[in-house]
Design a protein that fits this description.
By secondary structure, this protein is of the alpha+beta class. The chain has five domains: about 5-75; about 80-185, Beta-Lactamase; about 195-295, PAS domain (Beta-Lactamase, 2-Layer Sandwich), CATH 3.30.450.20; about 300-405; about 420-570, Histidine kinase-like ATPase, C-terminal domain (Heat Shock Protein 90, 2-Layer Sandwich), CATH 3.30.565.10. Helices cover about 50% and strands about 20% of the residues. Strands 11, 12, 13, 14, 15, 16 and 17 form a seven-stranded mixed beta sheet that branches. The relative contact order is 0.04.
Length: about 575
């Protein structure tokens, strides 16, 4: 009912009461009422009756609405997504809704008048008790608390509690308890990934570009702590000379999506720079637009690409060398034949010339022949003839060495996909020494101790490559010291069913922390351009392919020893190659 209706109803009720009083006073003389007064009295009573019926109807409607509201409140209270607990000053539970009972897995009878702290995890009870005391004593106490509780079965779970005082009972507090176990697990999973992803990840405000969240990888990449990183802006992560490129990259990736990372220099806290792949995408945090930035340090990647390019160039040079060796074989063959023929014919020619001179001298006499043969005798003295013979023989030896080198180089660079065959180790060792001699002889003495060794199952070119890689590695270790003080020794021996080969040098040695990595691809301690970091890795893989092992022993300043052990096979002749 409206206020006007209520006032009118009250007035009517009051008038009816007055008239009723009059009737009571005049009950004894009703007979004295005039017909008009009787008629008016009957009308007033009828109005009064109608008013009472209307009030009763309004009261029934109000009670029905109140009942519906009470049921709705009960439903909202009991079926709310959070458990609601009302606690008195001592922490006893005065009331709990259905969600709260389900949350703890206990009945209403067991929860009412029981201490709320009993359902808190034992490790958290002191903290929750202190928080409850603070709520009672101070209006400034925090009203939100994250803690752990336990169910009836004893299983712990994470909750968030929001506290509010009960208006009609100032010392009582109503707690809204939300189960956040799923959220906590999701946060833990996110934190696990976020903290351990190897790329640097940062979240920054879209407008100010202020960093608001960084992972440990980003801090390590920038060389600063998390607190220091959160004082930076996105532009602080890159050199000033590349800020325009940064803005163009961000605009393009936001418009097109971060399909491909773009390489841009990044800057550390100490002002040093490094190449980094940049990915930027839009994100939202608490309704605020954000920029999610991912940085990946590609210094090692670029170094590996450089090493791969160097390895590719070396491979191309190897193919070129193989082609040159093949092309040199034919002219070297006839040059060697001609010089060998001259070396063989020269002594006979010298003897024939000596015989002719002696014959002329005897026929003409010494005095007559001397003027005629003086010039010839001066040119073909025994010393000159011996010297010419020696030079020819040296030339023959040099040509033979060139032929051997070109043949070994061609054999070494030949791509061989045939199955392994029995090969004598010493032959491959000698081939490797021949190829590497130009690098070793100017730097060290070469000492060999090649015992008679059985054969091993391998491919000739690849077996030679193993030893050549070890010898070249030894030559690099000797650089910078006097050749007279250095030594490279190669030794072979048999140990039970294995053929052992050792390549030892007296070079700079390998630090202990690097010895476990020397067989990794692209790992090298040599200056850029000196080594590709592939030699020992390739050797290790080839040795393993042939069923053997390779090990390293080294001491800084004393030298390094590599020992290759390969399974021996029966010492039977290798099959003759097909023509």
């Amino acid at each position: 009912m409206t206020d006007a209706t209520s006032i009118a109803a009250l007035r009517a009720t009051a008038e009816a009461a007055v008239k009723s009083a009059r009737l009571q006073q005049r009950a004894g003389d009703v007979a004295d009422l005039s017909p008009h007064e009787v008629q008016h009295l009957v009308h007033e009573l009828s109005v009064y009756q109608v008013e009472l019926e209307m009030q009763n109807e309004e009261l029934r409607r109000t009670q029905a609405a109140l009942s519906v509201s009470r049921d709705r409140y009960a439903d909202l209270y009991n079926l709310a997504p959070v458990g609601t607990f009302t606690l008195d000053e001592s922490g006893l539970i005065l009331d709990v809704n259905l969600t709260g009972r389900r949350l703890l897995g206990e009945s209403n009878a067991l929860l009412l008048n029981a201490p709320f702290i009993r359902h808190v995890h034992p490790a958290e009870r002191d903290r929750v008790h202190t928080w409850h005391r603070q709520l009672l004593r101070s209006n400034d106490a925090p009203t939100i608390l994250k803690t752990r509780m336990i169910r009836l079965a004893g299983a712990p779970f994470h909750v968030q509690i929001v506290a509010a005082p009960v208006p009609e009972h100032p010392t009582s507090w109503r707690l809204a308890v939300a189960d956040i176990e799923a959220i906590t697990q999701a946060e833990d999973r996110f934190r696990l990934v976020f903290d351990h992803v190897p790329d640097g990840v940062a979240l920054s405000d879209t407008t100010s570009r202020q960093l608001v969240l960084v992972n440990p990888a980003m801090c390590a990449m920038l060389g600063c702590t998390e607190a220091e990183a959160l004082t930076l802006h996105l532009a602080d992560l890159h050199p000033p000379t590349h800020l325009r490129q940064l803005e163009r990259t961000i605009a393009r990736q936001l418009a097109e999506g971060p399909r491909l990372a773009e390489v841009i220099p990044a800057r550390r806290r100490d002002e040093t720079t490094f190449p980094a792949e940049l990915l930027v995408t839009g994100a939202t945090l608490g309704g605020r637009p954000m920029l999610l930035t991912c940085l990946r340090d590609v210094s090692e990647k670029q170094r590996l690409l450089s090493e791969l390019a160097q390895a590719d160039r070396l491979a191309s040079m190897g193919l070129l060398a193989a082609g040159i060796a093949h092309e040199l074989n034919n002219p070297l063959s006839y040059v060697l034949y001609n010089i060998e023929s001259l070396a063989e014919d020269l002594p006979a020619m010298a003897r024939a010339m000596t015989h002719c001179i002696n014959t002329l001298t005897s026929q003409l006499g010494t005095h007559a022949s001397a003027p005629l043969l003086a010039e010839a005798l001066a040119a073909i003295t025994p010393t000159a003839l011996t010297d010419a013979d020696d030079r020819l023989r040296d030339a023959v030896d040099g040509i033979r060495r060139i032929v051997a080198i070109t043949r070994n180089l061609g054999r070494f660079t030949r791509s061989d996909h045939t199955p392994p065959t029995p090969i004598r180790v010493n032959d491959s060792v000698e081939q490797a020494l021949s190829i590497a001699s130009h690098a070793l002889k100017p730097r060290a003495r070469i000492v060999t101790d090649l015992a008679a060794s059985p054969r091993v199952l391998a491919r000739e070119g690849e077996l030679t490559q193993i030893f050549l890689n070890l010898l070249i590695n030894a030559s690099h270790a000797l650089e910078g010291s006097a050749a007279t003080e250095n030594e490279v020794s190669v030794r072979t021996w048999v140990e039970r069913d294995q053929v052992c080969i050792e390549v030892r040098d007296t070079g700079c040695g390998i630090p202990a922390e690097d010895q476990l990595r020397v067989f990794e691809p692209f790992f090298t301690t040599k200056p850029v351009g000196v080594g590709s970091g592939l030699g020992l890795s390739i050797s290790s893989k080839l040795v393993a392919e042939f069923g053997g092992t390779i090990s390293v022993t080294s001491a800084v300043g004393q030298g390094t020893s590599f020992v290759v052990k390969l399974p021996r096979v029966e010492d039977t002749p290798a099959p003759e190659p097909l023509p």
